[in-house]
Amino acid sequence: MVQLRIEEAEALKQKLNRRYQELIAEVRDELERSGERYYIELAGRVRDSGEKAVGDLLADLGTAIVDRHVRELREIEAALQRVVDGTYGECAECGADIGFERLQAFPTARRCVICQEQREKTYAQEPSPTL
Ligand SMILES: [Zn+2]
Questions:
Q1: pTM score > 0.85 for this model?
Q2: Ligand 1 centre from 125 Cα, in Å?
Protein backbone atom coordinates (compact mmCIF):
# COMPACT_ATOMS: atom_id res chain seq x y z
CA MET A 1 0.00 0.00 0.00
CA VAL A 2 3.08 2.19 -0.27
CA GLN A 3 1.89 4.45 -3.05
CA LEU A 4 -1.71 4.87 -1.94
CA ARG A 5 -2.45 7.84 0.23
CA ILE A 6 -4.29 7.11 3.45
CA GLU A 7 -7.51 8.72 2.16
CA GLU A 8 -7.29 6.70 -1.04
CA ALA A 9 -6.75 3.44 0.77
CA GLU A 10 -9.61 4.29 3.11
CA ALA A 11 -11.96 5.12 0.22
CA LEU A 12 -11.16 1.81 -1.47
CA LYS A 13 -11.63 -0.10 1.74
CA GLN A 14 -15.04 1.48 2.22
CA LYS A 15 -15.93 0.65 -1.35
CA LEU A 16 -14.99 -2.99 -0.80
CA ASN A 17 -16.93 -3.15 2.45
CA ARG A 18 -20.00 -1.58 0.90
CA ARG A 19 -20.03 -4.02 -2.00
CA TYR A 20 -19.50 -6.86 0.45
CA GLN A 21 -22.54 -5.86 2.51
CA GLU A 22 -24.61 -5.57 -0.67
CA LEU A 23 -23.63 -9.04 -1.81
CA ILE A 24 -24.34 -10.54 1.60
CA ALA A 25 -27.77 -8.92 1.64
CA GLU A 26 -28.52 -10.30 -1.83
CA VAL A 27 -27.38 -13.78 -0.91
CA ARG A 28 -29.47 -13.69 2.26
CA ASP A 29 -32.54 -12.55 0.33
CA GLU A 30 -32.11 -15.24 -2.26
CA LEU A 31 -31.68 -17.94 0.34
CA GLU A 32 -34.76 -16.76 2.20
CA ARG A 33 -36.82 -16.49 -0.99
CA SER A 34 -35.93 -20.03 -2.00
CA GLY A 35 -38.43 -21.27 0.59
CA GLU A 36 -36.23 -24.25 1.45
CA ARG A 37 -35.93 -24.74 5.17
CA TYR A 38 -32.23 -25.57 4.92
CA TYR A 39 -31.45 -22.40 2.99
CA ILE A 40 -33.51 -20.25 5.33
CA GLU A 41 -31.51 -21.66 8.25
CA LEU A 42 -28.35 -20.92 6.35
CA ALA A 43 -29.49 -17.36 5.76
CA GLY A 44 -29.67 -17.09 9.56
CA ARG A 45 -26.14 -18.43 9.86
CA VAL A 46 -24.94 -15.86 7.32
CA ARG A 47 -26.47 -13.18 9.52
CA ASP A 48 -24.93 -14.60 12.70
CA SER A 49 -21.49 -15.06 11.17
CA GLY A 50 -20.80 -11.41 11.83
CA GLU A 51 -20.47 -11.17 8.06
CA LYS A 52 -16.94 -12.45 8.15
CA ALA A 53 -15.60 -15.07 5.73
CA VAL A 54 -19.08 -15.75 4.43
CA GLY A 55 -17.48 -16.77 1.14
CA ASP A 56 -16.13 -19.95 2.72
CA LEU A 57 -19.44 -20.77 4.35
CA LEU A 58 -21.29 -20.41 1.07
CA ALA A 59 -18.67 -22.09 -1.10
CA ASP A 60 -19.28 -25.32 0.85
CA LEU A 61 -22.92 -25.06 -0.04
CA GLY A 62 -22.27 -25.33 -3.75
CA THR A 63 -25.74 -24.21 -4.77
CA ALA A 64 -26.59 -22.28 -7.91
CA ILE A 65 -28.57 -19.77 -5.83
CA VAL A 66 -25.42 -18.27 -4.42
CA ASP A 67 -22.61 -19.58 -6.64
CA ARG A 68 -22.50 -16.50 -8.80
CA HIS A 69 -22.01 -14.32 -5.71
CA VAL A 70 -19.49 -16.54 -3.98
CA ARG A 71 -16.63 -15.75 -6.29
CA GLU A 72 -17.08 -12.02 -5.86
CA LEU A 73 -17.48 -12.37 -2.09
CA ARG A 74 -14.23 -14.33 -1.88
CA GLU A 75 -12.42 -11.83 -4.07
CA ILE A 76 -13.53 -9.03 -1.76
CA GLU A 77 -12.52 -11.05 1.32
CA ALA A 78 -9.10 -11.63 -0.25
CA ALA A 79 -8.74 -7.93 -1.10
CA LEU A 80 -9.66 -6.91 2.46
CA GLN A 81 -7.12 -9.41 3.75
CA ARG A 82 -4.48 -7.78 1.54
CA VAL A 83 -5.42 -4.44 3.11
CA VAL A 84 -4.71 -5.99 6.52
CA ASP A 85 -1.46 -7.56 5.27
CA GLY A 86 -0.34 -4.28 3.73
CA THR A 87 -0.02 -5.78 0.24
CA TYR A 88 -3.18 -4.23 -1.15
CA GLY A 89 -2.55 -2.20 -4.32
CA GLU A 90 0.56 -4.20 -5.18
CA CYS A 91 0.63 -6.26 -8.38
CA ALA A 92 0.70 -9.98 -7.53
CA GLU A 93 2.89 -10.69 -10.56
CA CYS A 94 5.51 -7.95 -10.72
CA GLY A 95 5.08 -6.12 -7.42
CA ALA A 96 4.44 -2.79 -9.14
CA ASP A 97 1.80 -0.34 -8.05
CA ILE A 98 -1.65 -1.14 -9.39
CA GLY A 99 -2.59 2.52 -9.06
CA PHE A 100 -5.53 4.28 -7.48
CA GLU A 101 -7.52 4.79 -10.70
CA ARG A 102 -7.45 1.14 -11.62
CA LEU A 103 -8.30 0.15 -8.05
CA GLN A 104 -11.24 2.51 -8.06
CA ALA A 105 -12.60 0.80 -11.17
CA PHE A 106 -11.66 -2.68 -9.90
CA PRO A 107 -11.16 -2.62 -6.14
CA THR A 108 -10.39 -6.35 -6.13
CA ALA A 109 -7.69 -6.08 -8.84
CA ARG A 110 -4.63 -8.22 -8.09
CA ARG A 111 -2.52 -7.17 -11.05
CA CYS A 112 -1.32 -4.00 -12.70
CA VAL A 113 -2.67 -3.16 -16.16
CA ILE A 114 0.41 -4.53 -17.93
CA CYS A 115 0.36 -7.91 -16.18
CA GLN A 116 -3.41 -8.11 -16.59
CA GLU A 117 -3.17 -7.54 -20.36
CA GLN A 118 -0.40 -10.10 -20.56
CA ARG A 119 -2.55 -12.59 -18.72
CA GLU A 120 -5.58 -11.93 -20.88
CA LYS A 121 -3.48 -12.57 -23.97
CA THR A 122 -2.16 -15.79 -22.50
CA TYR A 123 -5.58 -16.97 -21.39
CA ALA A 124 -7.53 -15.43 -24.25
CA GLN A 125 -9.58 -18.61 -24.56
CA GLU A 126 -10.95 -18.38 -21.04
CA PRO A 127 -14.33 -16.69 -20.83
CA SER A 128 -13.59 -14.46 -17.84
CA PRO A 129 -10.00 -14.02 -16.66
CA THR A 130 -9.68 -13.12 -12.99
CA LEU A 131 -8.66 -9.58 -12.24
ZN1 LIG B 1 2.33 -6.19 -12.72
A1: no
A2: 21
